[in-house]
Request: fold
Amino acid sequence: MDENVVNHWKHNLPNIIQGYDTRDIWNVDEIGLFWKGVPNRNLVLQGEKCKADKLATERFTIPLLCLATGEKFKPLVISKS
Reply:
């Protein structure tokens, strides 16, 4: 990370969030989970051929959320319907 960018945000963030209640400041991040994915490497005996089909595309998106007060929420699971 560029140190100038970090210093810019450290200096300006208090001005941006000024006037907001602490409960109104949220942080959200997401992770992706391929739940039927197969590993891209396998252990095989010497001389055996390693076979792999098309990689699985079944994926969950899991957002993680917390407030500036330290309150954490249970992860929400989003998938294809």
User: Anything to note?
Assistant: Residues 22-81 form one domain. The chain has a mean pLDDT of 82. The beta strands are 26-34, 59-67. The chain has one domain: 22-81.
